[in-house]
Design brief:
Elements lengths: L4 H9 L6 H8 L4 E4 L6 H12 L9 E4 L3 H17 L6 E4 L5 H9 L4 E4 L1 H8 L4 H5 L4 E4 L2 H5 L2 H16 L4 E6 L5 H7 L4 E4 L7 E4 L17 H10 L2 E6 L2 H14 L6 E4 L5 H12 L5 E4 L12 E7 L5 H8 L11 E5 L3 H15 L13 H14 L4 H8 L10 H13 L13 E4 L2 E4 L4 H7 L9 E6 L6 E6 H4 L7 E4 L2 E9 L2 E6 L19 H12 L9 H13 L7 E9 L2 E7 L4 H17 L4 E6 L3 E6 L12 H13 L2 H14 L5 E2 L2 E2 L2 H18 L4 H12 L4 H10 L2 E6 L24 H15 L4
Parallel strand pairs: 1-6, 1-7, 2-4, 2-5, 3-4, 5-6, 8-13, 9-11, 9-12, 10-11, 12-13, 16-20, 21-27
Antiparallel strand pairs: 14-15, 16-17, 18-19, 19-20, 21-22, 22-24, 23-24, 25-26
Helix pairs in contact: 2-3, 6-9, 11-12, 15-21, 16-18, 16-19, 16-25, 23-24, 23-28, 25-26, 25-27
């Protein structure tokens, strides 16, 4: 396929030349994966073959576009409208997401548009209808945008199963994957099921550095509020800025702090996933119109949004992941061969080191990422149930179809049959209960036992298992929606309590029909709405970079003076954590013994290690009293000192302790609940009712205990054990930490060390409340630093 004259003229009228990678995709005859920098015209490259095709008449849906974000589908629709209008193409473009109105969804099943923009969840739902062959039978192309982001979670596995189904419905389908930040393009191509990799010119290096601030970062904390005046100054000097914050709660608080200091009344918006659809759309429209000088955002704006006026990105808090940082940087100067400009604001002194390590990784184009495991079986169980909703299926044909998808290419027939048996009966221990008898075999085909079950299965689709959320609205009939908060948070509120949402303080009035009703309360200091949001974990590669940077005094020249002095003192009074050596310390503080271990294994892994080590310390009679974990260190306080940590770090002992601890632990039950929801064993949403988080947890706990007693080999227990080990408890990272650090260096100290001092200031260690809490916090920090030898 070549570029028609009308398209060549259109490029010329814009003052553009087609990029080589855009023409390469146009000429490709099979599946392709395009790796191109942000602003490199990936989206237009992905759609160009479709637009050229659609100059000729076509009946039904021609192109399906799948992205990880609802905001991205709206942005793509805006950007596609221009070339379609300029070229005079008679093309209908629509979106289909969770925000799409029911009437439009129903119409799309009967009369699909030429180009449909959707998300993995909505695609899986559409494929579950009996009209799926008619909707997708004429499909010619699929565009998978920001594929790397999807491939990192179960949503990607769900999407690849849906893609395998699409290939069966439309055998001549051509698939194009688009991505900007990929550490292993060949692995991502295999994830697609096989594709030709096309590389674009990577473009110029970004202009990225730490933001100069009048005050140094504090010793602890995650808010970055010390830098608010400096951030506002940078916003005032730029055209449009995106300020990325790692969590929704911190985004709310930082937005409020910006407004309190915004003497110039700069128009600044807020965007995150817990805000109402209307609030998000207002911010997106204002950004597109150039009406905002800045927007404070979480991961909801990480990917692909094309706002050309954005010329600065500010990352508040350590990035945790180099790929995510590169992705966020790319939101600035979203143009080909224009360097993106970004500034990083570390929230505390330890994050300064991580930020420097991340900057070095960006300069070296060294992206992080862990190898993907096989496709999870709970997602496959859900896929089998959704396939049955669309109509009868042959097990052999479905197995062949599933194994054509990248994540499930190595799926054994035994595991497939186990998933099919679970979908049909619930498994050995549950097959006597009618509610889990969902499939039956007739005339060699599997089908729903009761066709009415399709509605319930569809209502519980998805692979994202988040905390139960309640809608928040202003009190009164027709009150304006503000967003959502966690059910667990709402349950702690009493009438009159205040909290922060949508950048404003509100007063809790009551709960009516699962809706949190509030009134405006601008004068009171708010409680913090603890959104679940996106929990960012520091990548293994970035953690190891931080450890290597700290452990090499020759590399400290890259750090600010305050950080150099801090690490220099640590080297004199104790030891610097370093590659290949696990450094730990024991010292007294306020009548208790403290044990600090610098593991650089991530918060989840070190949290698990703390649980396992305190059990072993209890058995040894050391009297452990508590612990806290950060991404880099573990601190345990006890009545007696740890003089030799070796017995507490024995891999065999830890592994045995993990098995004993997990067997009846709440963490294991939480992991089982998530697996059971994805697999379809537990249905949270039913017609006319909604099961609360507490009800779902209670149900899953009973099921977990029942299966452990009567069916210990049950498929979902096997999946749960794997998931708990890799996910919630991250034990694999503990084993990796011990394997890559065979050396041990334990120091007995007479006082807190410089590196351990900030750990004693972590939330939960030093309770500080009341009007003077900031002054008290500063005094507490100063006293600790003086004890550690820092002034």
């Amino acid at each position: 396929m070549t570029l028609p004259p009308a398209f060549q003229d259109w490029f010329a009228r814009q003052g553009w030349q087609p990029h080589p990678h855009q023409l390469a995709l146009l000429e490709a005859t099979g599946d392709s994966l395009l790796i191109a920098p942000t602003g490199g015209g990936k989206t237009l490259a992905g759609f160009l073959p479709s637009l050229v095709d659609l100059t000729a008449p076509h009946r039904g849906m021609h192109t399906l576009y799948v992205s990880p974000l609802k905001a991205l589908t709206a942005d793509i629709a805006r950007n596609l409208a221009r070339p379609v209008a300029d070229l005079g193409l008679d093309i209908r473009i629509e979106d289909r997401t969770g925000d799409t109105r029911p009437a439009q969804r129903a119409r799309q099943r009967i009369d699909p548009p030429d180009i449909l923009l959707t998300t993995p969840e909505s695609l899986a739902l559409m494929l579950s209808y009996e009209q799926a062959p008619a909707i997708f039978g004429g499909l010619r192309r699929v565009v998978l945008d920001e594929l790397h982001a999807l491939a990192e979670s179960r949503r990607g596995d769900q999407l690849m199963l849906a893609l395998a189904r699409l290939r069966s419905l439309a055998p001549d389908l051509v698939v194009t994957g688009l991505s900007a930040t990929v550490e292993d393009p060949d692995a991502l191509a295999r994830f697609m099921g096989g594709a030709q990799v096309i590389h674009a010119d990577p473009g110029p290096d970004p202009d990225i550095a730490m933001l100069d601030t009048a005050k140094p970062p504090p010793w602890s904390g995650a808010g970055g509020h010390y830098a608010v005046p400096d951030v506002l100054k940078a916003v005032a000097e730029a055209t449009t800025t995106i300020i990325f914050i790692n969590t929704r709660a911190q985004a709310e608080l930082f937005f409020q702090a910006l407004w309190a200091a915004n003497d110039q009344n700069l128009p600044i918006g807020l965007h995150h996933g817990s805000l109402s659809r209307e609030a998000r759309e207002r911010v997106e429209a204002a950004m597109a119109a150039g009406a905002l000088r800045a927007v404070v955002a979480t991961g909801s704006l990480d990917l692909g949004i094309d706002w050309g006026a954005v010329d600065l990105v500010i990352q508040v808090g350590a990035p945790r992941n180099v790929k995510r940082l590169v992705q966020r940087i790319g939101r600035a100067n979203h143009r080909y061969n224009a360097p993106s400009r970004a500034r990083i604001v570390p929230a505390n002194r330890f994050e300064v080191v991580e930020c420097v390590a991340a900057l070095q990784a960006v300069a070296e184009r060294d992206l992080d990422g862990d190898p993907r495991g096989p496709g999870p079986l709970d997602v496959l169980c859900q896929h089998i149930l959704l396939t049955a909703c669309a109509g009868p299926f042959d097990a052999d044909a479905l197995y062949a179809e599933v194994t054509r998808s990248g994540p499930y290419a190595a799926l054994t027939r035994a595991d497939f049959d186990a998933c099919l048996d679970f979908a049909a009966t619930g498994g050995y221990a549950l097959r006597a209960y009618d509610r889990w008898q969902r499939l039956m075999q007739r005339d060699g085909l599997w089908r729903l036992r009761d066709p009415r079950a399709a509605r319930d299965i569809r209502m519980n689709i998805g692979t994202i298992v988040e905390a139960e959320m309640l809608k928040v609205r202003f009190r009164g009939r027709g009150g304006a929606p503000l967003g959502e908060v966690e059910e667990s948070f709402a349950s702690t509120l009493s009438p009159g309590d205040t909290f922060l949402i949508g950048g404003q303080t509100v007063r809790y009035d009551g709960l009516r029909e699962m809706v949190v009703e509030v009134t405006k309360q601008p004068s009171k200091e708010p409680r913090i709405a603890v959104f679940s949001g996106l929990k960012l974990a520091t990548s293994t590669q970035l953690s190891q970079r931080v450890q290597a940077l700290i452990g090499n005094p020759a590399a400290h020249a890259a750090l600010p003076g305050t950080s150099r002095d801090w690490l220099s003192l640590q080297a004199r009074v104790s030891a610097l954590p370093r590659a290949g050596v696990l450094v730990s310390e024991t010292f007294p503080h306020q009548g208790r013994w403290q044990f600090a271990l610098y593991g650089f294994a991530g918060r989840n892994a070190l949290q698990t290690l703390g649980l396992l080590m305190t059990r072993l310390m209890e058995e040894a009679g050391l009297g452990p009293l508590g612990f806290l974990a950060t991404d880099y260190a573990l601190l345990i306080w006890s009545l007696d000192p740890v003089t030799d940590p070796a017995p507490l770090l024995d891999p065999d002992g830890l592994r045995e302790g993990l098995g004993d601890w997990l067997a009846g632990n709440a963490v294991m039950k939480r992991s089982f609940r998530n697996v059971a929801i994805v697999a379809g064993l537990i249905q949270r949403n039913l017609p006319g009712q909604r099961k609360t988080g507490k009800q779902a947890t209670f149900s899953s706990d009973i099921l977990y205990d029942t299966l452990r007693k009567y069916d210990p080999g049950h498929l979902l227990l096997r999946i749960t054990a794997d998931e708990a080990r890799r996910g919630l408890v991250d034990f694999d990272r503990i084993e990796d930490m011990l394997a890559r650090s065979p050396g041990r260096d334990h120091r007995m100290l007479d006082r807190v060390s410089p590196l351990a001092a900030p750990l004693l200031l972590e939330v939960g260690r030093v309770p500080i409340a009341g009007q003077g809490r900031e002054r008290l916090a500063e005094a507490e920090a100063a006293a600790l630093m003086a004890e550690a030898g820092l002034t």
